[in-house]
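TASK: fixed-backbone design
INPUT:
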C-alpha cells in the first residue's frame, strides 16, 4: 500500500498485466475501514476489489474479490475477445491479512 498521497489508498500489484487498485480513504471515523477497486474493460469485464479494515497501526484484514461479467451487462465498454465463459473465468474471493 502506498501512503504518499494523503487521503488516497493505492495498492500496486507485482504482475505487469494486473491493474493497480485505487480508492479514496474516508476521514478517520474510528472504523478504520477501506475499499479500493479497479476495472479492466473488454469483452469479459474484470473487476477487482479489496475491502477491509485496519486492526491497528501495523495490521489489517480484508477480502480480495475478482468478478468477471460479459460486456455490456456490468457497464464495461465492450472490446474484442472472448466471453468470460469462453475464457473460463469465474468469480472468486479470498480472505487476506496484512502486516508491516
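OUTPUT:
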Amino acid at each position: 500500500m502506498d501512503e504518499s498521497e494523503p487521503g488516497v489508498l493505492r495498492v500496486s500489484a507485482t504482475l505487469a498485466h494486473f491493474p493497480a487498485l485505487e480508492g479514496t480513504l474516508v476521514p478517520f471515523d474510528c472504523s478504520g475501514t477501506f475499499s479500493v477497486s479497479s476495472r479492466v474493460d473488454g469483452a469479459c469485464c474484470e473487476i477487482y476489489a479489496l475491502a477491509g479494515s485496519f486492526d491497528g497501526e501495523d495490521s489489517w484484514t480484508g477480502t480480495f474479490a475478482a468478478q468477471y461479467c460479459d460486456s455490456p451487462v456490468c457497464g464495461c465498454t465492450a472490446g474484442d475477445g472472448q466471453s468470460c465463459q469462453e475464457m473460463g473465468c469465474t468469480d472468486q474471493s479470498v480472505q487476506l491479512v496484512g502486516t508491516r
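COMMENT: The helical segments are 84-87.
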